[in-house]
Amino acid sequence: MGGFAGGDEGGYWEEDTLLKKVRKNKNTAQALPISIEGSVYSIKAYAKINIFLKITGHKEGYHTLRSRFMRVENLYDIITFVPCECDTFTIEGCNEIPLESNTIYKAYKALNEHTGDLDILNFFYHHKVLVTKRIPTQAGLGGGSSDGAAFMLLVREVCNLLINTRELARIGSTIGADFPFFLHNYSSANVSGFGEIVEAFDEEPLSVELYTPPIGCDTSLVYKTFKEHFLAHINPSTFAGWEHIDSKTLLHTYQDTGLLNDLYSAACMAYPQLQTLAPQGWFFSGSGSTFFKPNH
């Protein structure tokens, strides 16, 4: 799971001051939530939930998975490029995060290294990045990866980069496992492998309620705990065919969050207080610590 390191307090952006212009990404045929006002460019970076998350194995030092990712339409950060004369690449709104750990900075470096396009360097000599954080960190919602992916999509737009979504996802996957999902810009998708295999799933997005207790779950610790205590007991046959079942039916049929999300038991073992704060009948997303339930 990708994410910001450190804190996530952001600045404030009055969204209504932006002109609403929606662009089409020809590679995914999905609407990109881009807003433009003069030389100010902005994009929404949506949170996601995992309807189910099953670990299928471990190789090359990483866990492999099979999961259903769904975008949360009413929870997003905002990434804005604001005119500013800058000596170096500048990010505001997440100052508690060391620059080298920031997924947006990692995305910036990866794009530069891959394209060698001087237009990117020149653009950020004349623009800074403003991050408005609303998605909590270490919460299983993919906020850091979503921000980095949205940054890449917006850079491709404003700098007219000739790079398709598949290649962009390949670059993003070197930064975080959730990047490919966000770069494909699907509202719902089956995700597998190390996170690099993303297949759109045709269904109506669910309206969900979120609850994030005051606990941050470190992804690496949760996965390490899973490997040490639960990996030997995985049985892929128990979730065969789930990728063909719509999310609403899955949640109605399998109401045990521990059954739907393999990482729940590992997260509770690593953070015992998590189980005491878990609301009854809610579902666990990602590696924690957010719970969700559908609005019926």
Please tell me the CATH architecture by its name: 2-Layer Sandwich
Provide the low-confidence segments as ranges: 1-29
Which of globular, elongated, flat, extended, rod-shaped describes the shape?
globular
- Overall structural class, as computed from helix and strand content, comes to alpha+beta
Please report the total strand number as a whole number: 12
* Overall mean confidence score, pLDDT: 89
CATH fold description: Ribosomal Protein S5, domain 2
Q: State the end-to-end distance.
A: 29 Å
Report the sheet with the most strands, covering strand number, pairing sense and barrel closure: 7 strands, mixed
Number of domains: 1
List the total number of helices: 10
Report the order of strands and helices: EEEEEEHHEHHHEEEHHHHHEE
Q: Which percent range describes the beta-strand content?
A: 25-35%
CATH class category: Alpha Beta
CA radius of gyration is 19 Å
Topology:
Layout: E1 23-25, E2 30-32, E3 34-37, E4 40-59, E5 62-83, E6 91-92, H1 103-115, H2 118-123, E7 127-132, H3 143-158, H4 165-173, H5 179-184, E8 188-193, E9 197-200, E10 208-211, H6 219-229, H7 247-253, H8 257-260, H9 263-270, H10 273-277, E11 283-284, E12 291-294
Parallel strand pairs: 6-7
Antiparallel strand pairs: 1-2, 3-4, 4-5, 5-7, 5-8, 8-9, 10-12, 11-12
